[in-house]
Amino acid sequence: MSFAEPEAFGEPTRHRVGSRTVAAATCLVLGLGLIGGAVTGSWLTDDDGDNAPGDHFATAGTLWHNVPVDQLFPPTVQGTGAGPGGADRTWTRIAVAPDGGCAHAFDPLLQKALAPVGCQRLLRATYTDATQSYVTTVGLLFTKADPAAMSALAHRFRTERLDRRADLMPRPYPAEGTPAAGFGPKQRASWTISVLTDAPVVAYAVSGWADGRGVDAPQPAADALSAGATTAPAQAGLGNEAQGLADRIERRLRQSIGTATETPS
């Protein structure tokens, strides 16, 4: 690109050379100014570009021991518009599992599907709705994987629809003396699994009735939420319970990641 005006025909050679010299000098000054401005802007914003995503991902992997349980799994979660027909929901935490590994935490097939990303730590909590009619366990599996491995697992779950398979449902976390005391594998009604790609985390939720009734045909939350779904979990809103709570816990996780990676001003 040239910032000099076009030469007119018939002008003396000396004038053309002088114009070109001035134009070249102008371009040089402008170019240096643009480069200097870009460098200065980089300094001012402290934007190191390449390191930011890696720092974000690595920081996310440490939250299981750096963030209080009430920040990830608050005692009360508001679900504005999360219920059937856009009804509001309020969930109350009734149990928190001791943080630990993944041994015996998942059914064998799900354990096998998650094996490529490893298990650093598993955090779980169980909630009930305001009427104590439903119970939902939400979990955050912190993996040992790098971004490439998480992306590969997310791709597999998406393309093979592993999150819709009933034999890959997460297990609930029951707790004696709570409405979830009878919330076992046979009481699972609806579930959702999300493999994150910007953090080494697999988030999930599984819901059921609080009265301990068994479920013959559990349904993934995505299907239970679809228009015209007529299964018992869909009609009861158990898909909404699983998806609504999972979404809000995942949102809190991302907020915690953002807070942990903020650069002090």
Short description:
This protein is of the alpha+beta class. The chain is built from nine helices and seven strands; from the N terminus they run H-H-H-H-E-E-H-E-E-H-E-E-E-H-H-H.
What can you see in these coordinates?
By secondary structure, the protein is α+β, with helices and mostly antiparallel strands. Helix content is 39%, strand content 18%. The protein contains nine helices and seven strands; from the N terminus they run ααααββαββαβββααα. A seven-stranded mixed β-sheet has the order 1-2-3-4-6-5-7. The longest helix is centred in the N-terminal third of the chain and has 33 residues. The radius of gyration is 28 Å and the shape is globular. The chain starts with 12 loop residues before the first helix and ends in a 5-residue tail after the last helix.
Please state the CA-atom Rg, rounded to the nearest Å: 28 Å
Report the average pLDDT across residues: 83
Low-confidence stretches: 1-51
Head-to-tail CA distance between termini: 39 Å
Helix content: 25-40%
Shape: globular
**Structural class by helix and strand composition:** alpha+beta
Strand arrangement, largest sheet? 1-2-3-4-6-5-7
Oligomer: single chain
How much beta, percentage-wise? 15-25%
Largest sheet: 7 strands, mixed
Number of strands: 7
**Distinct helical segment count:** 9
Order of helix and strand elements from N to C terminus: HHHHEEHEEHEEEHHH
